[in-house]
Design goal:
Blueprint: H1 15-27, E1 33-38, H2 45-58, E2 66-72, H3 74-77, H4 83-98, H5 103-122, H6 127-134, H7 139-149, H8 158-163, H9 165-176, H10 192-210, E3 212-218, H11 226-239, E4 245-251, H12 253-263, H13 271-281, E5 284-287, H14 293-310, H15 316-331, H16 341-348, H17 353-371, H18 379-396, H19 405-417, H20 419-427, H21 438-449, H22 463-470, H23 481-486, H24 502-513, H25 519-528, H26 530-543, H27 557-565, H28 570-578, H29 590-594, H30 600-608, H31 614-627
Parallel strand pairs: 1-4, 1-5, 2-3, 3-4
Pfam families: KAP_NTPase
Biased composition (Basic and acidic residues): 166-176
Region (Disordered): 156-182
Length: 628
């Protein structure tokens, strides 16, 4: 199974984009910069960000500049803690870690953390807001704010506190006695803008002294509720445009616009203003490249190779070579170097039949998963699609079901992309027809004949239906019950009762394949017994319907042979024969049929039928003379 986690392994040719972004961040050379990585859900924003991070770490020059990457996921803090405070704390903790081995810088880092604590308390409002305005602590929150602001010595320089022993003890004693704090120090309103600027100055100074560039990756912003998203953006603004700082924000632009509109609901804000809000935060907009059929084919092929390698179907050297060759091929696709069948086959080897089948599957799935609005070439959805297919494959073997990956993928594709068609086909699956759907067989033949041949109902004459019908393998001759049984995660199915035994099913298959009378077939009929032979005869007759030409004797072998062993089946055979399309019956089938007593009444009717052609009538008349 494929995990839904980000990766630095490039299956989508994102490497060139990551290279460009990393180079841009390096060229900033300490100048503050903000990059917005935009794209919809599941298109690979986080993976692209991870690739950028990897490239930045390769560019470290210790002593001059090192890239310190902090990843912030506001979605994790939603409903637990304010995203703004959480981001500030994350930055402060990282700076404290970096300064741990340098005593002077460590003291500065600790003071920075105190300022962060103060700013986190300041956003609480209520008692905190009154305290900040008046300088007098109001309630427990007000006392905490005052303490964080330094009115109780917390905001002062650590050296000053340590030297000011006597005064500190006096304050402590006075507080212990319950004396009002404002008697110890004249209440002075705290200037929040000054505190914010002091925090920014302190952080900027520390980054310069540490010789690091702080790169903050903000991820999963488009998973957050609008309130959390806006809070995160506001905290970004607090840290933005500091020297030696960079922000990379991964989010869907449409989601951000929607969050801004919700935030300013009732103010009459226009769509243009909502767009400008984000644009003011982001200097460089970077869009995740959209996938076309070529990229989707490459992605599917690599995923299938990865799984095949894990299953020991594809060797490591071949897989490693493919991971290098396919992205290179995509980089030159603009020249016409497409990911063709021949190219994929050359990567897996012409003698590896299982891998060739998987590459054929990737080629067939790519256009359908790209054009379908249900998937739209979304990497996450394509990965989930394959996960479902392989999960069903894992469930098949313990239930005695033998199905290959291409068959499972073809059926899941129609479930995923055209649920109405899938349900219509499933409704036609029954035990009476051994799970075969004749209309599906007809549609596959029509699609193979070309665009001029109309498709039968319930198929729509659209590109998806035609391409799906031509996707290998064909399912028109396949018992669909196993496929539907494994797809019970989408719907439950009732195929009706199947009263056949193992001997009956074996006889059914033997009759469907038989072209003449033979001893093994006769023995199989006798072993099955009259009841099972009758069931097998009826089902084999249905199975051969599409291939029956009505021109040679082998077409009627499934009716004739069971009746030889069990004459009591004659009435059933006669009824099946009576349903024949008499206009298609040729003279070649008549002699063998007329030799069967039970078939003669039906042939006598054909002789009088105006739709039967003259050669066939002549063959009937000739057979009658031979009997006399």
């Amino acid at each position: 199974m494929w995990s839904d986690n980000e990766t630095t392994v490039d299956y989508l040719n994102f490497g060139v984009v990551a290279d460009a972004c990393a180079k841009l961040l390096q060229q900033a050379n300490g100048t503050p910069i903000s990059v917005g990585v935009s794209g919809g859900w599941g298109v690979g924003k986080t993976s692209l960000v991870r690739m950028i991070e990897y490239r930045l770490k390769q560019a470290d020059t210790p002593g001059t500049n090192s890239y310190i990457v902090v990843t912030f996921n506001p979605w994790l803090y939603q409903d637990f803690e304010g995203a703004r405070g959480a981001l500030l704390q994350l930055v402060g903790d990282e700076v404290l870690r970096l300064a741990a081995k340098n005593e002077p810088l460590l003291k500065k880092a600790k003071r920075l953390l105190k300022r962060i604590n103060f700013l986190r308390l300041a956003q609480l409002g209520g008692e905190a807001a009154v305290t900040l305005y008046t300088g007098v602590p109001v309630g427990s929150i007000g006392s905490a704010v005052m303490k964080a602001a330094g009115l109780f010595g917390v905001g002062e320089d650590d050296d000053t506190k340590e030297s000011d022993d006597g005064e500190g003890k006096k304050k402590e004693k006075a507080t212990d006695k319950g004396m009002p704090n404002d008697l110890l120090k004249t209440a002075e309103p705290v200037s929040l803008p000054n505190e914010i600027q002091a925090f920014r100055n302190a952080l900027e100074e520390l980054l310069e002294e540490l010789k690091v560039t702080l790169v903050v990756f903000v991820d999963d912003l488009d998973r957050c509720l609008p309130k959390t998203a806006i809070s995160t953006l506001e905290s970004i603004r607090l840290l933005l445009f500091l020297k030696r700082s960079a922000f990379v924000v991964a989010a869907d632009n449409e989601f951000i616009r929607g969050a801004v509109r919700v935030h300013f609901e009732g103010t009459g804000i226009s769509g243009e203003v909502a767009t400008n809000y984000f644009d003011k935060l982001i200097q460089v907009p970077l869009h995740v490249p959209r996938l076309g059929i070529n990229e989707a084919k490459a992605y599917l092929a690599l995923l299938l190779m990865e799984r095949a390698h894990a299953d020991d179907i594809f060797n490591k050297s071949g897989f490693d070579a493919a991971k290098e060759s396919i992205p290179k091929r995509l980089q030159t696709s603009w020249k016409g170097d497409a990911v063709t069948s021949e190219f994929l086959q050359s990567l897996v080897g012409s003698s590896n039949a299982p891998m060739l089948a998987l590459m054929q599957l990737a080629e067939g799935l790519a256009p359908l998963l790209t054009q379908s609005s249900a998937v739209n070439a979304n990497p996450r959805l394509m990965k989930r699609f394959l996960n479902t297919v392989y999960l069903r494959s894992a469930l098949a073997a313990p239930q005695g079901i033998d199905l290959d990956i291409p068959s499972l993928a073809k059926w899941h594709l129609v479930e995923r992309c055209d649920e109405t068609l899938a349900n219509a086909l499933a409704a036609r699956v029954s035990s009476d027809a051994d799970g075969r759907v004749p209309i599906l067989r007809e549609a596959e033949a029509a699609a193979a004949a070309g665009p001029g041949t109309p498709l039968p109902e319930p198929f729509k004459d659209d590109p998806f239906s035609r391409e799906w019908l031509q996707l290998k393998p064909s399912l028109g001759e396949v018992d669909l019950r196993p496929l539907l049984h494994l797809s019970r995660d989408t719907a439950t199915r009732d195929f009706g009762a199947d009263n056949m035994t193992d001997e009956g099913r074996a006889l059914r298959d033997a009759l469907a394949a038989a072209t003449n009378s033979n001893a093994p077939l006769t023995e199989a009929i006798r072993t099955a017994g009259a009841i099972q032979a009758g069931l097998a005869m009826g089902k084999a007759w249905q199975l051969k319907a599409a291939k029956r030409t009505w021109r040679s004797g082998e077409d009627v072998v499934p009716l004739i042979e069971p009746c030889k062993v069990f004459p009591e089946l004659a009435a059933q055979a006669s009824a099946l024969l009576a349903e024949a399309p008499v206009g298609k019956v040729g003279p070649g089938v008549i002699p063998l049929l007329y030799a069967q007593t039970w078939a003669r009444p039906t042939l006598d009717k054909w002789e009088l039928d105006a739709s039967v052609d003259k050669p066939t009538k002549a063959a009937i008349q000739q057979s009658k003379k031979g009997v006399r």
